[in-house]
Amino acid sequence: MKRIEKYLVSPYKITIFKDKSRKQFYQTEVTFDIKKYNSLCYGIEKQLLSEKGVLDTDVIKLDPLINYLRKSIMNYLEKLHFESSKLRDFLCDWLVYRIIGLERLFPLLNDDKVQEIYLDKPGTSLYIDHQDYGRCLTNIFLNTKELESIKTRLCLERDAIINYLNPSLKVELKTSKFHIRAAIDIPPLAADGMSMNIRKLRKKIWTLPELISCDMLSLQSAAYLIFVMRRRNNFTVIGEPGSGKTTLANSIDFLTPNYWRKITVEDVIESIEQTKYNKFQTRYSVSPFDTKVNHSSKSEEIIKLLHRSPNWVYLGEIQTAEHSKALFEALSAGLVGIQTCHGRSVEMMLIRWINQHEIPLTSILSLDILIETHSTFDEWRMNRNVQRIVEVSKESLSSNRFSNSLDEIQLEEIFALDQNNVLERRIDLFETPIVKKIRESKKLTRDIFEAELAQISAILEHLIENLMFSPENVLAYFEKLESKLTDQIIKP
User: Fold this and answer.
1) Which residues pair with 337 in a beta bridge?
2) CATH assignment of 2-200?
3) CA of 341: how far to CAs of 246, 322, 344, 415, in Å?
4) What 8-state DSSP symbol labels residue 295?
5) Which of 169, 255, 137 is nearest to 206 (CA)?
6) pLDDT for the residue 159
7) Rounded Cα distance, 108 and 115, in Å
8) Contacts for 471-480 with beta carbons within 8 Å, 24 or more apart?
9) Distance (Å, whole) CA 280 – CA 260
10) Coil, strand, or helix at residue 326?
11) Which class would CATH give 208-484?
12) Other CB atoms closer than 10 Å to residue 31's CB: what's the count?
């Protein structure tokens, strides 16, 4: 096998190999000799457990537990006067996760380049999706005790039970080191034994310039989306699981003007916390649709938004018929914002809404921008991109007639991938349904429109050329743009 990458995730060495069949392998190795320190670690572990019982009687949640253990273990190790502070830190981190029962998951949870972790069934190795290399097999096999530790930990985090009658569990887990969304299934649902999917929620924010640089969308299409967003039009990002819907939605949502009042409603918090960037934002966490105990449902909170005066709403994932009905009721009442939906294409999503979720045809006209994302595999590497950007024509609204069939819902393709995999403009942007609507309500000339697009494009180009992808840099440049365009922007 050929080694193609090597780096450190303290206290583990990570090595990535590729074999002759082009399969990729992600291997972990502790940086110090475990056998040499086994007695020491066992002694510390035994003393901690004897002093604190099972540790979770006072400290239930994982992040406080990790902090408590790290502080206690570090105190023991400092008394031993280690010559190397680095070795002391390595031992401390390793022992914390060993006591909790997550020792072999530790490198995967702490490696920012690992995007998703999978277990198909007991007795098989974990495999991952890596940011730089795509899908990789690992050398990690979890035994029965370790799987039980993971299951117990997730149940403690959400104060939930997983058993024969309730064989699925979905949990968000956030610590100072990592933020994940974990889903586990057990028999009888998981026919071959416990299965697991852990999605890593990236600590670092993907900004729109960075997504352009990764070829997820084109600079011209991004500039147009920003122009439309700043006029408070509704966005729906549609795609298969893992196609980058939430990443794209977050990057667009992050660029909303800082004077807007923003509200998010999510069952798993995947939106970006933006108050630290001087934005107005309130986030609501609701019960997942598959939970047996509802403290607050997404559909209820969507309806409540009508009385909370938001300028922009972030609804996370719209999953069920109940969610869809609440969404369209909110849109018809004048709320705008961004949401994601699982679907193979825009057309398939419309059919699902109308035929399965029983959304009236006329309600479809309340949609504005529909963004279709796709993911494809290039051998073992996953590529994510925007396949199409589509708008719903408003002609029937202006003619005061109702749509009676799906054929009468007109979709205007604004951007679409060409044969060279480039997101190509398909229409004069000044003639799109949304820009026409803006022109009818505001004095928007072609010169003003094209000048603003050019300014947005120039900012994006500058940020990309200089690799300025940090949230602080991106916001600073767009706040300057905000001051220049104050008279042109429709303020909520």
Assistant:
1) 313
2) 3.30.450.380
3) 10, 13, 10, 19
4) S
5) 255
6) 77
7) 9
8) 471/205, 471/207, 471/254, 471/277, 472/277, 474/207, 474/208, 474/209, 474/254, 474/255, 475/254, 475/255, 475/258, 475/277, 478/255, 479/258
9) 6
10) helix
11) alpha beta
12) 14
Rounded to whole angstroms, how far apart are CA atoms 148 and 73? 24
pLDDT of residue 58 exceeding 70, the answer is no
The whole-number pLDDT of residue 259 equals 93
The stretch 256-268 carries a mean pLDDT of 91
- CA dist 16 and 11 (Å) reads 17
> Amino acid letter at 84?
S
Q: SS3 of 297, please? A: coil
* Residue at 344: amino acid letter: R
What is the C-alpha separation between 285 and 470, in angstroms, rounded? Answer: 27
Token pair of 78, please? Answer: 């400092």
What are the tokens at 268?
Answer: 């798993």
Parse the chain into domains and list their residue ranges.
2-200, 208-484
Question: For 451-469, how does the pLDDT look when each residue is reduced to its tens digit (9 = 90+)?
Answer: 999 999 999 999 999 999 9
Angstrom distances, CA of residue 413 to CA of 168, 232, 249, 393, 423 = 39, 20, 19, 10, 11
Tokens of 83: 């010559």
Hey, which residues does 128 pair with through a beta bridge?
Answer: 117, 136
Model pLDDT, residue 278: 92
| pLDDT tens by residue, 299-337 | 888 888 888 889 999 998 998 999 999 999 999 889 999
For the chain, first and last CA: distance in Å? 59
pLDDT value, residue 491: 45
Helix boundaries (H) for 2-110: 34-52, 62-79, 85-100, 106-110
Give the model's confidence band at 82: pLDDT under 50 very low, under 70 low, under 90 confident, else very high. low
